Amino acid sequence: MSMRNIYRKIAKEHGVTVPEVKREMQATIDYVYKKIDKSESEKIMQKVIHRKGGIPTTEEFIKSLAHKIENKYRST
């Protein structure tokens, strides 16, 4: 499924626009990456998300998680 279709599906399910979905997802990602009092599991998870900059884009975040899930199921 393409990123475009993912955003559309989420927007439709929640009765909002695609730009709203992207904006809210990025705001949430920004919040958790800027958070000061992170648990150890949050720190570990943030380190394994592939990204070009300091905070991943929604696309980088989703693709990285999808890749990790896919690899986990391939190895079982």
UniProtKB/TrEMBL annotation:
It comes from Desulfosporosinus hippei DSM 8344. This is Sporulation initiation factor Spo0A C terminal. Pfam families: Spo0A_C (PF08769). InterPro entries: Sig_transdc_resp-reg_C-effctor, Spo0A_C, WH-like_DNA-bd_sf. It comes from the Bacteria. GO terms for cellular component: cytoplasm. The lineage of its organism: Bacteria, Bacillati, Bacillota, Clostridia, Eubacteriales. Residues 4-69 form the Sporulation initiation factor Spo0A C-terminal domain. One of its GO terms (molecular function) is translation initiation factor activity.
